[in-house]
Amino acid sequence: MKKTAVVILNWNGRHFLEKFLPSVVANTNAEVIVADNGSTDGSLDFLATSYPTLRTIALDRNYGFASGYNKAMAQIEADYYVLLNDDVECTPGWVEPVIEMMERDPEIAIAQPKLMMYDQRDTFEYAGAAGGFIDSFGYPFCRGRLFNQLERDCGQYDDQREVFWATGAAMFVRADVWHRLGGLDDDFFAHMEEIDFCWRARNAGYKVMYCPQSTLYHVGGGTLPKSSPFKTELNFRNNLSMLYKNLPQKRLRRTMAMRMMLDIVAAFKFLAEGKAGEYRAVLKAHREYRAWKPMLQAKRAALPQREVSCIYRGHILTDYYLLRRQRFSDLKF
Asked: Which of 85, 129, 175, 178 could form a disulfide with 144 if both were Cys (CB 3.0 to 4.6 A apart)?
C-alpha cells in the first residue's frame, strides 16, 4: 500500500486522545501523526508520556481546522493523507478498503468511510453518515442524515458511490491533489471547509467517493457545541463564501439572491425562538461575507467553475419541512 499518513488535529482534546487514540494506533496500518493546535490542557504532555514514539507536530496556537491542517500537511510527506477527528473510534482494517478503492481509479481524489454514531452504533452520524450532498441553494445533507433526522443503518447505503463531499471527520485525500488545490481555505477557520475543498476538487475534474467497506464511530460536536452562535456564524458565513467561489456563472446571481433571503428568514426564526445570539450570528455572518467580497472575487477568478454532478436540484428545506421527505431515499434526484 502506498504511504498513508493519518493526521489527527487536536485542540484541547486530551480526554478524546486518552479515549480514542488506542483504537487508532491498534487498528491503523499507516503512520499516525497528531498535530496539536496550541492546546493548553496537557495534550502534548500526555502524548509524550503515553505515546513517545508517535510523531507530533506542535503548532504555536489554535489555527482552527482549516489552517491547522494546512500547516500540518506542509510538514508531512505521504501519498495519501487521512484527516481524522480526535473523537473517532477506529475499527480493524479501516484504512485499506478506502485506499484500495482510490488506487483503482486515479480520478478519485477524496473519499470517506461509513460514519456511525459512537453511542448509538446502529445509527448514522451527523457529520458525514454515508457521504455528503448539497442542494441547489448550498444546504448540506448526507445519505443517512437530513437536518437532524438520523437513519438507522440497515444496509441501505452499502454501495460504493460518488458523493458531493466527504466528511472532514475522516477524509482521505490524495496528497498531490491536496497541494495542487492549496489545501483547505485558511479563511474559513472551521466549518464548511471540507465541502468547499471537495467542490474545488470536483470543479477541477476529480471524483469524491464513499466507501462502506470501512466503518468508523464518531462522537461529534467535540470542539464546539451543536448550539453555538460562533458555530452559526461560521456556518452561514462560510456557506455563502463557498457558494460564491464555486458556483458556475449562470447560477451565481440567482442562487446568491435566494440564499440571502433564506438566511434572513432563518435569522428571524432564531429570534422568534428566543435565540437572540443565533440571530445576531447570522447578521454578523452576512456582514463578514460582504467585507470578504473583494477577497472572494479574487479567489473565484483563480478557480475553475463548472456544472458538476451530485448536486440535488431540488430544495431540501421544502422537501423536508413541507413535503415531509425525511430520508435520503425519499428525495427525487
From this structure: 129
Whether 39 contacts 10, CB under 8 Å: yes
- Taking alpha carbons only, the member of 164, 160, 134 closest to residue 146 is 134
Helix (H, G, I), strand (E, B) or coil at 172: strand
Check whether 87 has a pLDDT greater than 90. yes
Structural domains of the chain, count: 2
Domain identity same for 67 and 115: yes
28 plus 101 within the same structural domain: yes
Are 204 and 306 in contact, with CB atoms under 8 Å apart?
no
Per-residue pLDDT, 92:
98
Count of CB atoms situated within 10 Å of the CB of 26:
9
Same domain, 97 and 131: yes
C-alpha cell at 106: 486515479
Strand order through the sheet with 311-312: 149-150, 145-146, 140-142, 132-135, 311-312
Cα(198)–Cα(219) distance, integer angstroms: 23
Residue 33, amino acid:
I
Report how far residue 159's alpha carbon sits from residue 161's, in angstroms, rounded to the nearest whole number: 6
The mean pLDDT value of the chain amounts to 96
CA within 13 Å, CB half, 228 = 11
What are 332's three cell numbers? 427525487
| Cell numbers standing for residue 206 | 476529480
In this structure, the answer to whether residues 255 and 147 fall within a common structural domain is no
Residue 93: Cβ within 10 Å count = 13
Q: Are residues 31 and 68 in the same domain?
A: yes
End-to-end alpha-carbon separation of the chain, Å? 36
Residue in 64, 72, 52, 58 with CA at minimum distance from that of residue 7? 72
Confidence of residue 266 (pLDDT cuts 50, 70, 90): very high
Residue with cell 479567489: 299
Q: Sign of the C-alpha dihedral, residues 136, 138, 141, 146?
A: negative
CA–CA gap between residue 191 and residue 66 (Å, rounded): 9
